[in-house]
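Running this now, will post back.
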Amino acid sequence: MYVSATFVALWIVGWLYRDKLEIENVTEKYVFITGCDSGFGNLLCRKLDGKGFRVLAACLTEKGADDLKRVSGPHLKTVLLNVTCQDSIQKAMEWTKKEVGDKGLWGIVNNAGYSLPMGPSEWMKVEDFHKTLNVNLNGVIAMTVTFLPLVKRARGRIVNVASVLGRVAANGGGYCISKFAVEAFSDCLRSSLHHKRQRDTTRCVFTALLLFIICSVLLSVRRDIHYFGVNVCIIEPGFFKTAVTSLDPIEKELYRLWDQLSPEVQASYGDKYLDKYIKIQRLIMNGICDSDLAKVTNCMEHALTAAYPRTRYSAGWDAKLLWIPLSYMPACVVDIGLKLVMPRPSKSV
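Update: finished.
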């Protein structure tokens, strides 16, 4: 028992020590970030710029790019990018290639995202799913595949922003689907790029020979990293106050979806269903959405600066205490929880 407890304690100490080790020469490293007009991407750009990174910020609008440049240093550069357009992605890659030269690209952060519409899947048309998937999934794949040669050259990092809703499908529409797919794509990418490399060994002197052996084995064990030295990290934010969770556009889309339903489908839900749905949604979003975006960008920063980055990062109290634990529970638990929270259609069985 005491040996097991000591082993666990040493493992925790070793993990914490490795987790705090950082890379060197960040002023020579280039990081490309998508979705920098606002939210997580905008804040991450400013934080990395302050640390000395050469930040290449991709914005969707000229206004977003101009606003970011006004609050950043001279080493931050912007480029206009639409992740749903391959021509735009290719132009951004060519521009990046000229910027980084032979050094390659240390990191790419696939942060650009889109959430609308969110609501009951029956209310949506196929086009509604495509709109979200084109940004959140196809955009991530296209960006990663196009920029991968530059990342391989630097033996750098690929940081993909998923979501806790890529663990638990809590609403309809394309958002949860896209985030589940980003998780899978990232895992597939990691497995195709990893290789074996010897881990550094830290030697400690213990009074007991048995404890010395345990520690040596613990800290010298080999682990998988990447064939080409490329690390793939997944960020799983909980609910935060960003454009993605803004209630006005979400509710506007819900009304649009409701208005396009046939009278038969509307009758199956009942006249009061939409109002109840919006009321519950407001209550949940106002209750759990966190305004501290740094909780997410700190995870992104660690993925880019740590000598040994983690595979997954869960950001936010709701992610750690609610969504991640729920993802390991039987599906019936999630189903029951959603049934208790969400309104019941008038003609449900």
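The two ends are 53 Å apart (CA to CA). More later if anyone needs it.
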